[in-house]
């Protein structure tokens, strides 16, 4: 679940980085998120990442979106092309 990852996974990296773990620091700085799903899934993940911004937990990981939902309202509103196989 994205919420648990944001709260637990990133906080573990942040704690280890604060203790001097250079690998945890680099991982926290370079982590990326890919949201693959429908509008609800993408909105949920982006909302969780938005909480990082509110909490001042920078950097907020760059996020890629793979629109896989049935409606694809998000991709349509951004003018992304959707391919149906």
Describe the structure.
GO terms for molecular function: kinase activity. Pfam families: DAGK_cat (PF00781). It comes from Datura stramonium (Jimsonweed). This protein is mostly helical and 85 residues long. The protein contains 4 helices and 2 strands. α3 links the parallel β1 and β2. α1 runs antiparallel to α2. The model has no long low-confidence stretch (mean pLDDT 84).
Give the helices and strands, then pairings:
Layout: H1 2-18, H2 22-30, E1 33-37, H3 39-55, E2 63-67, H4 73-77
Parallel strand pairs: 1-2
Protein name: Diacylglycerol kinase 3
Pfam family, one: DAGK_cat
Organism: Datura stramonium
Tags for this entry?
Diacylglycerol kinase 3; two-stranded parallel sheet; 56% helix; 4 helices; mainly alpha; elongated; 85 residues
Distance linking N and C termini: 28 Å
Helix-and-strand structural type: mainly alpha
- Largest sheet geometry: 2 strands, parallel
Output the helix-strand order.
Answer: HHEHEH
Rounded average pLDDT: 84
Determine the number of helices (DSSP H or I, runs of at least 4 residues).
4
Main sheet strand line-up: 1-2
Number of strands: 2
Alpha carbon gyration radius:
15 Å
**Approximate helicity band:** 55-70%
Per the principal axes of the C-alpha atoms, what is the gross shape?
A: elongated
Pick out the low-confidence regions. none
Proportion of beta-strand residues: 5-15%
């Amino acid at each position: 679940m994205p919420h648990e990852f944001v709260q637990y996974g990133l906080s573990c990296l942040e704690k280890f980085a604060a203790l001097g773990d250079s690998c945890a620091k680099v991982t926290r700085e370079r982590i990326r998120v890919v949201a693959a799903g429908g509008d609800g899934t993408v909105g949920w993940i982006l909302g969780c990442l938005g909480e990082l911004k509110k909490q001042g937990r920078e950097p907020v990981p760059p996020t890629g979106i793979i629109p896989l939902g049935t409606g694809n309202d998000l991709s349509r509103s951004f003018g992304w092309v959707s391919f149906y196989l």
